[in-house]
Amino acid sequence: MRQWAQAFPDGTNRTRMSGPGSSTEALKMARRLDWRFLLPEPALRRVAYFGSGGDLLSEALRRFSEEFVPVRSGAVATRGDREDCDLAVVASRRSEDLRAAYSRLRPGGLLYWEVDRRPGLFGTGPQRDAGDAGARVGRFLTTPHGNLQSLGFEHVRVSLALPHARNPRAVLSPDSTAVRFTLALAKRKLYGLDHCASFASRIGLLPRILPGLLVVARRPGGRPSVEGMTASAFLGEQESGSHAEELSWVLLSRRGSSFAMTFLLREGSERPAAVVKSARLPGHARAEGALAREAGGLRTVAEIQPSITRSVPTVLADGRSGGTRSLTLSGMPGAALSRHTLRRDPEGWADEIVHWLIDLHKATSAAGTTAPDRYDCLVRLPIRELERHLPQSESHQGLILRADRALEDLASFDLPAVLEHGDLCGSNILAGAKTPGETAITVVDWEFAEARGFPAIDLFFFLASMALAREPARTWDEKLQTMHRAFRRTDGWAHPWISRYWEALELPSSAAEPLFICCWTRILARLLQRPDRSLADAASRGGERAILHHHFFRFWKDLVAASGSHTFFPAAGEAGGGPAGTHQPLLQCKRSPR
Q: Which class is 25-281 in CATH?
C-alpha cells in the first residue's frame, strides 16, 4: 500500500514523516484503524468516509487509504451515485449516511460503522451531528443488525468496543465466551461483574446496552463472504468454511505497540484456538522483522525434544494479507504470571523456569563461535544505539568507552550460540495446572528471539524481573536498590540460579561480568527503540531524556563503572554493599535454592 510505505520510507520507526508529526503519530493513526483486522482483508483501497471530518479517524483514512473519498454527512443517496468504493466507513448516527454508503459501495463492498451511543444514553462523549433527530438516536441504534439488513446489507457482524468505539482497548464478539475471556485478561477483582456480563451476553443484552459497537456488513454481490467477517480469515485453511464462523474473537488494541493481537476462541473453551499477531504498519521493516524472528524461533524450538516443544506455541500460518504481515499461532493454556503470583513463591517459580531455560539452551546450543557478524549484532549495534541516544557529555562518553572495553572479551570467549527468547519475564510466561502439585508453563512472545544468541542473557533478565516482583518497589530508586540486593551483594538472591545455570552449560566464570553488562546494554538499546519513543525522546524533567532516570540505566551505569574490578559488588559503604572484606566474585556465592 503506497501510503503505508510513505510513513516509514526507510523501514524504521525513527524516520520522520512528511508534514507534522512523527513515527509515533503514524503509529497512533494506525491504531485508530485497528478495526480493519475485523475485515476479511485489511487493505484500505478506495474508501468512502461519512462523518464530520477533522477527527483522527478521517485523518488516518486520508493518510493510509489508497484513495480517500470524503462524503458530506447527511447527503441523500441518489441513483446517480457511483458504485465504485471497496469500503464505506460511517462515523455518524444518521440513517441517511448508511443508505448513502450502500449506494456508493460496489457489489461485494464492505461497510464499517462505528456506533457511539454515549450522547444519547449517558449525555457524555462527542456531540451529536447537526440535525440529528431523537428518533435517529433511539431504536435505529439499539438494533443495528436488523436495521442494516432492512437497508439491503448482508452478513452483518456486530462487535463490542470497550470502553468505547472511538478509542477501544478491546473489540470482541458479543458472546459469553469472548466476554469471559476479555474480563479474565483484565486481572482485576470484578465482584461478580464477570457473571453478570456473561449472562447479559447469553441473552443478547450487551449489544443493546453498551455505548460502543463496531459493525461490519457487506453489500450483496461479488465474491462469497463465508470465509468470515472477523480476523479468523487470517487462519486461511486452518479454520475454513462455516467452522470459522463459529469462532469468537477478541482484538486487543494496545497503545504504543507495533502489533494488533487477535484471539480466536471456540465456544465454551478458556484456551484460544489461535492467536493472530498482525503488524499495524504494513511494510514496516522492524515490525515484520520481529514477526520473522518469532516464527523462526518457534520453528527452531519445534525441532528439539518434545518436553520443550510443548511449552511454546506452534506456527499455524505465516504470510501476508493485503500487504499486512501476520503470524498465526496455536493458542496455549494458562494465564500470564502476575507479580502477585510470583511473589507468593519466587524460589519455586525461579527453580521451574531456570530449569526450563537450561533445557532450552542445552538443546539449542551450537558449537562455540566467534563469528564477527554475531559479535556485531549482539554487542556493537546495541552499544552504538545507546551511544547515539545518550547526551554528548564527557561522563556519558566515558561510560560508553568503558562499556566497550568491558565487552571486548566477548569476541574472544568460545561461548555456545543458543536460542535467546529475548524478553523472558512473567508477562510472557503462561502457567496452567498440569497435575496436582505441578505446574505447566508456556513461553510466548518470541519477537525478540535470537537464533545465535549469547547464553545467560535470558537468565539475567528473568531473574531481574523475579527480583522486582518479590520486592514491591514503586519508585525507580527503590527498583534500583532491589536490583543491587539481587545481584551485587555477596548474598544476592539471584546467585544460586546463576551458579546452577553456569554449571549446567559449562560456561567460563570469567565470562560472567561481560555477559552481565552485555545483557543490560541490549535491554537499554531495546527500550530506546520502543515505538512510542517514551524513553528515547527528551522528557519534561529538565529537558533530560527519560532513559537517564530509568532504574535499568542506572544499574547499567553502576555495573560499567565497576567493570574490571573482578567483582560485581560495590565498594564498602556504597548502596547495596555488604560489610568490608566480604566481596566475592559472583559465581563463588553459592547456596541451595529453597
A: alpha beta
